[in-house]
């Protein structure tokens, strides 16, 4: 029951974020800090970040502070703490079957997937991740074997292909 209540609250939050979102663009101020402006070049999220990525369609932003990446919401609030080496923000997470997965985060040379609250829902074990049109795909390399797959509705791994790689010299 708690799981369903959590998902309902999360879906409502995602819907609010989507409804309030307008197209914003990363912009750098005179002091070298990054924020986001609207189409009229008015600041919506003040420039306070060291770097900034283009938004997802759902009003989520990859932002960098003190050398680490995280994710911010439409009003500049930090949703996923800036503690990662890289991020990939989901493209409009409200339209697809993963309403609770926001994006991917990288620590060292491995990736994991996180929720809108910054909860890591998978371990850091993926060598490569891609978020494209609501699909979360991954690659895992183990010796000379490469496993490719995608995340299913309940964050289970669905293996699409396993293949042998050429031996390393």
Any overview of this molecule?
This protein is mainly beta and 169 residues long. The chain has a domain of 117 residues. Helices cover 11% and strands 47% of the residues. The strands form four sheets. A four-stranded antiparallel sheet has the order 4-5-6-7, with no helix packed on it. Strands 11-12-13-14 form a four-stranded antiparallel sheet, with no helix packed on it. The longest helix has 19 residues. The chain is elongated, with a radius of gyration of 17 Å. The chain starts with a helix and ends in a 5-residue tail after the last strand. The N terminus is likely disordered.
End-to-end Cα distance, whole Å, is 53 Å
The largest sheet is: 4 strands, antiparallel
Instruction: Indicate the proportion of strand residues.
Output: over 45%
Counting DSSP H or I runs of 4 or more residues, the number of helices is: 1
**Order of H and E elements:** HEEEEEEEEEEEEEE
Mean pLDDT: 76
What's the Cα radius of gyration?
17 Å
The helix fraction, in percent, is: 10-25%
Global outline: elongated
Q: How do the strands of the widest beta sheet line up side by side?
A: 4-5-6-7
Poorly predicted parts: 2-20
Number of strands: 14
- Provide the structure class: mainly beta
